[in-house]
Automatic annotation (TrEMBL):
Cellular compartment(s): Cell membrane
Keyword list, A-Z: Kinase, Membrane, Phosphoprotein, Transferase, Transmembrane, Transmembrane helix, Two-component regulatory system
Broadest EC class assigned to this enzyme: transferase
Regions crossing the membrane: 142-167
Protein name: histidine kinase
Top-level division of the source organism's lineage: Bacteria
Main location: membrane
GO CC annotations, alphabetized: plasma membrane
Domain HAMP: 172-221
Molecular function GO labels: phosphorelay sensor kinase activity
Organism the protein comes from: Planotetraspora mira
Length: 448
C-alpha cells in the first residue's frame, strides 16, 4: 500500500509538473508578445514626434526610451530618474531582442522580461525597452494551489480505493488461510468460506481449495478403508494359522503334521499373495520405471490359455496385436483377468484378441483383449466397484474365499499405465472384460 501511494504521488507530481511547465511556457510567450507589441508601438511614435513623457502604463508597467547616447529621454512614471533597465541591443531595426533580467532592473527587484526594439529617423536612433515581471515558475498561486489540492485529492482517492479493493480481496484470503490453519486430519469435512463472485479471484481460490479438500478427504477415506481391508484380509489367515497351531500345542500327540502343514501352507500362500499384490500396487502407485518393448498380446493370451487347466478355455486370437509396454506387467494383467474369469465361470472362458482401427495402416489402431466367462456376471451398479481395492462381491466370496480382491485393481492400473483402458461391457451371460491398448505404429520395429 505504501509503495502504491508513493508511486501514485510521484506520477501525480510529474503530471502536475508537466502542466505547470506547459502553462508557464504559454504564459511567458503571451507576456513576451504583449511586451514586444507595446515596445514596437512606442518605437513607432518616436520618428513621428508623438512620444510623450511620462509614457502611459496602460498595457505594460515599465517602458524606457533611450537616445543614441544611451540617455533616457522618456519613461513610465515608475522608472523616472532611474538608469537604463538593460544594456543589450537588438541586432537591427528589423528585429527585437528579449532577455530576462534579475536584480534592480525594475523598482520591485523582481526578475523582469525585457524586450529591446530600435527606432531610426534621419540618421538618429532610439532604443525602446519594454519590461514586465517575468512569469513565476508556478505561473499563478491559484493554479499552484489547484494542482497541489488536485494531486492530494487524486492520491488520496486512489489510495482509499486501492485500500478498499485490496482489503476486500485480502479479507477473504485471510479467512481462507485461517480456516486452512485449523484443518486437522480429523476435521477434513470442514471447508473454507467461499466469497461472493464480486471477489472473483478469492472466489475461485476458495472453490479450488474446497475442491482440493474434497479430493483429499476422499483420498483419506479410501486410505482408511484400504487399511481396514488390509487388516481384515491379513487377520483372517493369521487367525486361522494361530488357531491351528494352538490346537496342535494343546494335543501334540493327536496332531497330523502333514495335514497341519498343508493347512498352514495354504494360509501362507494367501498371505504371500496379498503381500505380493500390495507390493505390485505400491510400485504402480509410485510410478516405478519399467522396461518397454514391443509385446504381442496374442502371444501372451495364447501362452496363458495353454497353461490353464480345469474349465474349458477357448482362445481366439488375431496375430500382430503388438503394443509397447512391460511384458511382465502385461502378462500379470492377462493372468489376473483369465484367473478371475476361471474362478467365476460355470464351464467355459473365452479369451479373444483382435485389432481395431488399423485397416488403413494408420497409427490410431487399438489392440483389444476380451475375457468372457459364463458365470453369474456383474450387475451394472457393481462394474466400477470391482476395480476398487479389496472389494469382493458376495457372489465371489461364495464361490472362492481365497481371493485377495486386488487382482482386478492391479489389472486396471497396469492398463492405465500403458495408456489403455479396462472396462466391463454388457454380455448375454457372465462377465465381459475388455482391455484396449494403443497398437504399435505401422512403421515400428518389434523388439525381442
Amino acid at each position: 500500500m505504501l509503495f502504491l501511494g508513493v508511486a501514485v504521488a510521484l506520477l501525480s507530481t510529474l503530471m502536475s509538473g508537466m502542466v505547470i511547465f506547459i502553462v508557464h511556457r504559454l504564459a511567458t510567450e503571451s507576456r513576451t508578445a504583449t511586451v514586444n507589441g507595446t515596445a514596437t508601438e512606442i518605437a513607432s511614435l518616436v520618428p513621428r514626434g508623438e512620444l510623450r513623457n511620462p509614457i502611459s502604463e496602460q498595457v505594460i508597467p515599465y517602458v524606457q526610451v533611450l537616445d543614441s547616447k544611451r540617455r533616457v529621454i522618456a519613461s513610465t512614471e515608475n522608472l523616472r530618474g532611474r538608469p537604463p533597465i538593460a544594456s543589450f541591443l537588438p541586432a537591427n531595426t528589423e528585429s527585437e531582442r528579449t532577455e530576462v533580467i534579475c536584480g534592480k532592473a525594475i523598482p520591485t527587484g523582481e526578475c523582469a522580461l525585457v524586450v529591446a526594439v530600435q527606432a531610426t529617423d534621419n540618421g538618429g536612433s532610439w532604443t525602446v525597452y519594454g519590461a514586465a515581471p517575468s512569469v513565476p515558475f508556478y505561473v499563478d498561486p491559484l493554479l499552484a494551489l489547484l494542482l497541489v489540492a488536485g494531486t492530494v485529492i487524486i492520491v488520496g482517492l486512489i489510495i482509499f480505493a486501492s485500500y478498499r479493493i485490496i482489503v476486500g480481496y485480502i479479507e477473504p484470503v485471510r479467512l481462507i488461510r485461517a480456516e486452512l490453519g485449523h484443518l486437522r486430519p480429523t476435521r477434513l469435512s470442514e471447508r473454507v468460506p467461499v466469497p461472493s463472485r464480486s471477489h472473483r479471484e478469492a472466489h475461485d481460490l476458495a472453490t479450488t481449495v474446497n475442491r482440493t479438500l474434497d479430493q483429499l478427504q476422499a483420498m483419506m477415506e479410501r486410505e482408511r478403508q484400504f487399511t481396514s481391508d488390509v487388516s481384515h484380509d491379513l487377520r483372517n489367515p493369521i487367525t486361522a494359522m494361530r488357531t491351528e497351531i494352538e490346537d496342535g500345542l494343546l494335543a501334540p500327540d493327536e496332531v497330523d503334521v502333514v495335514k497341519l502343514g498343508t493347512t498352514l501352507l495354504a494360509d501362507l500362500d494367501r498371505l504371500q499373495a496379498i503381500v505380493s499384490d500390495l507390493l505390485t500396487l505400491a510400485k504402480l502407485d509410485a510410478g516405478a520405471p519399467t522396461t518397454c518393448q514391443w509385446v504381442d498380446l496374442a502371444e501372451l493370451a495364447t501362452a496363458e490359455c495353454a497353461r490353464r487347466s480345469g474349465k474349458q478355455i477357448i482362445c481366439e486370437v488375431t496375430p500382430g496385436a503388438v503394443v509397447k509396454g512391460d511384458r511382465v506387467r502385461l502378462t500379470r494383467l492377462v493372468n489376473n483377468l483369465v484367473a478371475n474369469a476361471q474362478r467365476h465361470a460355470r464351464s467355459k472362458v473365452i479369451v479373444r484378441v483382435s485389432r481395431e482401427g488399423d485397416d488403413t495402416g494408420s497409427d490410431a489402431g487399438t489392440a483389444v483383449l476380451e475375457v468372457i466367462d459364463d458365470g453369474e456376471g456383474i450387475s451394472p451398479g457393481d462394474r466400477e466397484a470391482v476395480f476398487e481395492r479389496f472389494v469382493r462381491l458376495e457372489a465371489g466370496r461364495r464361490k472362492d474365499s481365497g481371493g485377495t480382491g486386488l487382482g482386478l485393481p492391479i489389472a486396471r492400473q497396469i492398463a492405465e499405465s500403458h495408456s489403455g483402458t479396462l472396462t466391463i461391457q454388457d454380455s448375454d451371460r457372465g462377465a465381459h472384460f475388455v482391455l484396449r491398448v494403443p497398437l504399435r505404429p505401422a512403421d515400428g520395429d518389434a523388439e525381442s
